[in-house]
Amino acid sequence: MEATGPVTKRILVTGGTGLVGRAIEKVVADGEGQPDEEWIFVSSRDADLTSAAETKALFERHKPTHVIHLAAMVGGLFKNIHYNLDFWRRNIHINDNVLQSAYETGVQKVVSCLSTCIFPDKTTYPIDETMIHNGPPHSSNFGYSYAKRMIDIQNRGYFEQHGCRFTAVIPTNVFGPHDNFNIEDGHVLPGLIHKVYLAKQTGSALTVWGTGKPRRQFIYSMDLARLFLWVLREYNEVEPIILSVGEEDEVSIREAAEAITEAMDFRGEVVFDTSKADGQFKKTASNAKLRHYLPGFEFTPFREAVKETCAWFSANYANARK
């Protein structure tokens, strides 16, 4: 996306074709971009970030001044349980290569993306930014969680040793267009959207995995994208910041399923398969730090965001379900 006028910021977005990358691209294209910015969205097709040489070549080719680092090996609960070592190794390599290349090529600022699954399993709620390293993460996805935690450690190291402004954000459960809607290894909300679509097509019941009781804070990808732009431009701490709706906006999986069935006008039976694991009951995060900085930020209401996501999925079904 070429800017008009002198470009002083070249912003490289890794993982640029994923859920959050696509949302940032849309928000920038829809008027949130600034004239002095040039945005470059790259995916695994452009470079294998597990390779130090390919990562360095990518940085030397694009010469970014700023980086939003979204690239990661990701998967849902059931995929994580079986491949913890793979999640650890690939993500450690990706993150180390990106941060080191950013340092070596003089990048002014890096904003990396963490996840609330990095928080300690045994903890008090709500969780805040100071509690990341207070105990082991949930055992189901320890490989991914520890690899993500290490970004915070590296950010601190790059700041202390080299004065780099590398920081990280911790979004809660992100959803929206361009998500992974795969039922087997996707996340809960896109998986449910796909299931409702299929149940409606076939006239069968909707089966929700688990009891429906676990609670989550969902953030719409378009809202997260707007917050990413703010972090990139305005947030100057090395310490991470949680990007989330408030504690009062937490919804149960059952309520999420109801919002989806309503959005897609599904009138069939809803069954909860309690033989499937629930995962963590809740991981309520505090957005007090975000509210301190941005007291007036308005999130898209959950049901409205679900409606928009369901409409996108239905319109793009052939590609979205992969």
From TrEMBL:
Its EC number is 1.1.1.271. Pathway: Nucleotide-sugar biosynthesis; GDP-L-fucose biosynthesis via de novo pathway; GDP-L-fucose from GDP-alpha-D-mannose: step 2/2. It catalyses: GDP-beta-L-fucose + NADP(+) = GDP-4-dehydro-alpha-D-rhamnose + NADPH + H(+). The gene is TSTA3. This is GDP-L-fucose synthase. Pfam families: Epimerase. Residues 11-246 form the NAD-dependent epimerase/dehydratase domain. Keywords: Isomerase, Multifunctional enzyme, NADP, Oxidoreductase. The keyword Phosphoprotein does not apply. CDD domains: GDP_FS_SDR_e. It comes from Patagioenas fasciata monilis. One of its GO terms (molecular function) is isomerase activity. Catalyzes the two-step NADP-dependent conversion of GDP-4-dehydro-6-deoxy-D-mannose to GDP-fucose, involving an epimerase and a reductase reaction. One of its GO terms (biological process) is 'de novo' GDP-L-fucose biosynthetic process. InterPro entries: Epimerase_deHydtase, GDP_fucose/colitose_synth, NAD(P)-bd_dom_sf. Homodimer. Belongs to the NAD(P)-dependent epimerase/dehydratase family. Fucose synthase subfamily. It is an enzyme of class 1 (oxidoreductase). Transmembrane segments: none annotated. The keyword Repressor does not apply.
